[in-house]
């Protein structure tokens, strides 16, 4: 029989808290917390050993503390264990027990000996409690069977007034018969938000950040420090999703960098914690599968809906390149985890096409709301600051296999659907006891899946917490260890999860509705107002590459992809500020290629009705460019541009110039100023920069007329010279005659 607990001598300070931020049962836990807070009485379950029972006679010890924070002494308290003699029927019943906090769902069993009286509890004091039980006692009079048994710890006063209740589970798993050992793949994200904007530092050893939040998260209880702690102890089968933009930022921080300030930028020395974090992460993930997300985690659905056809493929490619360069050589890009785990057919097509011949996606990791089981409804919820959805299990329903096949324009794509309940158990809890309660819920849920009827082959289960989670390393590490130890689970890599081969298994376990993407999901995306200027910047950024002779990838690819990050969904104001910075940088680079002599005060002269006018282009970039110079007349009736065999210039970098001689013809008898428009174009014909207006001044004289006038002027000049010479000669003769006359006299 259940034995009466004895009062222990240990005093502990504990706080009742929910299992997780969005864990099923959170509402219940919050209810208990609220009750305890109002009444100043805190009930905590601190230990359940063993984690699950293997034999009918195994002694299960449940212990915890009761703390009086009312400020006054309390008397007549009773702590007792309530239990149920039948295991829960399915996951729906388990969910109901955890979330429905009415008396109807409380376990009915409460033996007179399964109680502990506390005659008095002084203000601020704690009273430890402990109960023991066995599976055989739980299932009396029948023999216990594999399953999950609900229990509750209840605190009453004066024999009737309930002050607090905490619910949890005891799992009984006898060694025979052995349940089907399902495959469990766990995906954990290492995703942050952009902290840099531009990859064009002022100095070779300088990088500019928009904030310095990363520095604080690397040490102590910072988010990245916690993620590293988890990575160091995680089983090697856990799959990590790595945003290479985070690696990029931390690499830049390992050197001197600059943080933009309200007034002036602030110089920062190299952060040794950044280099240490990177080194530790490389060591921690040396044997674990790593998947690189598209660079900067772009909002793929939004890009698909607003015509960013090439950016997704480039993001997949760049994410893989950076992760390979900064983390380790073996990094996959074939699995995509979209924002909030949601996408539609348009986004799926972009991912599947990717960058043809370079990088494509063959699997997508989705929420169960995006690909629900047939006949189940999706209901909205909020998960760690991100709006997403969860699918509730219907009574009698079995857990579907995690895989399904989707069809894109590039062919079939495998969908990996995360289990919503198990995934949210990995979300951080709020206080003492939450790790224990999450562990017991995890054991119960996975045992319930293993006990579902009709199983003949192992199913695949996928766990994936929210992508920008702020994890509790103690909780996550405990769940990972538990998952690795449970006999009805087999941890496996995410890339090894494949759809069932047998037809019966496919029918029974992978029957899901199609992609479900609601209007509310669409509203969560980056909108047209935000993305329109980003698209303009992306177009100009591409031109900075196309204008060069070698045409390497644009130096602004990473900057543009950061602007499309899904992190800006809830931070559009910050995203717009970043957009302006990138726009300024792209414009400044485009302005390094200029048409010289475009000042209206410096007209170019066309002598006569036809001639050649030079148009010069200066290249201040450090690389060679290939540019086509397109010249058109603003008034072809007055000034016509003569077609020429080529208009292309190849100009060296660092301030070199190239000149195109443009033949023009003016209408007869016309003189004065005319205008032409010069447009630079890339070698594939795309306009580069804004068109430039040049003033052409015509004299109205033809070439022959100029020759005649010149000849006439020459004749006139010769006549004048002859006349002057004759006068000089005549004067000399007159002077000589006068001299002879004087001598004769």
From TrEMBL:
Signal sequence bounds: 1-22
InterPro entries linked to this entry: DUF6049
Alphabetized UniProt keyword annotations: Membrane, Signal, Transmembrane, Transmembrane helix
Transmembrane segments: 700-725
Transmembrane helix among keywords: yes
Domain of life of the source: Bacteria
Protein's name in the database: Glycoprotein
Organism, as annotated: Nonomuraea montanisoli
């Amino acid at each position: 029989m259940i034995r009466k607990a004895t009062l222990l001598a240990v005093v502990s300070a504990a706080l009742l808290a929910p299992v997780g931020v969005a864990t099923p049962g959170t509402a219940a836990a919050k209810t208990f917390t609220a009750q305890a807070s109002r009444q100043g009485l805190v009930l905590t379950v601190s230990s359940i050993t063993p984690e699950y029972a293997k034999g009918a006679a195994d002694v299960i010890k449940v212990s915890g503390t009761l703390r009086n924070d009312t400020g006054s002494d309390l008397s007549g308290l009773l702590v007792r264990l309530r239990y149920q003699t039948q295991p829960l029927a399915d996951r729906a019943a388990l969910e109901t027990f955890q979330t429905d906090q009415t008396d109807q769902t409380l376990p009915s069993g409460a033996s007179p000996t399964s109680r502990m009286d506390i005659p008095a509890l002084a203000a601020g004091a704690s009273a430890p409690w402990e109960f023991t039980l066995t599976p055989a006692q739980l299932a009396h009079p029948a023999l216990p069977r594999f399953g999950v048994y609900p229990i509750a710890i209840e605190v009453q006063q004066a024999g009737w007034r309930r002050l607090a209740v905490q619910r949890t589970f005891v799992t009984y798993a006898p060694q025979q018969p052995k349940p089907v050992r399902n495959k469990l793949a766990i995906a954990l994200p290492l995703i942050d938000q952009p902290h840099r904007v531009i990859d064009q530092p002022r100095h070779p050893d300088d990088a500019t950040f928009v904030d310095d939040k990363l520095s604080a998260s690397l040490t102590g209880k910072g988010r990245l420090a916690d993620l590293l702690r988890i990575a160091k102890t995680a089983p090697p089968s856990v799959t990590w999703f790595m945003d290479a933009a985070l690696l990029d930022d931390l690499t830049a921080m390992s050197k001197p960098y600059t943080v933009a300030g309200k007034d002036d930028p602030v110089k920062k020395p190299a952060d040794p914690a950044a280099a240490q974090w990177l080194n530790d992460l490389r060591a921690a993930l040396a044997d674990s599968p790593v998947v690189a997300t598209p660079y900067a985690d772009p909002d793929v659905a939004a890009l698909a809906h607003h015509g960013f056809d090439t950016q997704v493929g480039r993001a997949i490619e760049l994410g893989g390149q950076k992760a390979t360069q900064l983390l380790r050589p073996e990094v996959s890009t074939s699995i995509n985890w979209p924002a909030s785990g949601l996408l539609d057919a348009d986004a799926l097509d972009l991912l599947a096409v990717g960058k043809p011949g370079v990088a494509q996606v063959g699997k997508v990791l989705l929420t169960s709301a995006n690909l629900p089981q047939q006949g189940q409804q999706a209901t909205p919820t909020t998960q760690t600051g991100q709006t997403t959805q969860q699918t509730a299990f219907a009574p009698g329903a079995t857990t579907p296999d995690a895989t399904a096949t989707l069809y894109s324009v590039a062919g079939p794509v495998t969908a990996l659907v995360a289990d919503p309940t198990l995934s949210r158990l990995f979300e951080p809890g709020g206080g003492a006891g939450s790790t224990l309660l999450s562990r017991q819920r995890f054991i119960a849920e996975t045992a319930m899946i293993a006990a579902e009827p009709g199983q003949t082959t192992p199913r695949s289960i996928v766990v994936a917490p929210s992508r920008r989670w702020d994890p509790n390393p103690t909780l996550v590490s405990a769940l990972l260890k538990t998952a690795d130890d449970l006999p009805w689970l087999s941890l496996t890599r995410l890339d090894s999860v494949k759809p069932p081969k047998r037809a019966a298994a496919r029918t029974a376990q992978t029957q899901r509705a199609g992609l479900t993407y609601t209007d509310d999901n669409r509203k969560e995306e980056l909108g047209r107002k935000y993305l329109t200027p980003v698209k303009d910047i992306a177009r100009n950024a591409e031109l900075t590459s196309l204008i060069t002779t070698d045409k390497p990838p644009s130096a602004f690819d990473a900057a543009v992809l950061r602007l499309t990050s899904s992190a800006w969904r809830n931070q559009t104001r910050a995203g717009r500020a970043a957009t302006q910075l990138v726009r300024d940088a792209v414009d400044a680079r485009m302005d390094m290629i200029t048409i010289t002599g475009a000042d209206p005060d410096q007209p170019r002269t066309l002598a006569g009705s036809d001639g050649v006018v030079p148009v010069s282009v200066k290249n201040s970039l450090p690389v060679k460019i290939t540019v086509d110079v397109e010249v058109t007349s603003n008034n072809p009736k007055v000034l016509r541009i003569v077609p020429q065999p080529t208009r292309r210039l190849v100009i060296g970098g660092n301030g070199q110039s190239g000149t195109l001689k443009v033949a023009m013809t003016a209408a007869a008898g016309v003189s004065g100023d005319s205008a032409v428009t010069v447009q630079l174009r890339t070698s594939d014909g795309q306009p580069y920069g804004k068109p430039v207006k040049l003033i052409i001044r015509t004299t109205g004289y033809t070439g022959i007329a100029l020759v005649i006038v010149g000849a006439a002027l020459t004749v006139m000049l010769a006549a004048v010279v002859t006349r002057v010479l004759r006068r000089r000669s005549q004067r000399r003769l007159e002077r000589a005659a006068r001299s002879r006359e004087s001598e004769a006299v």
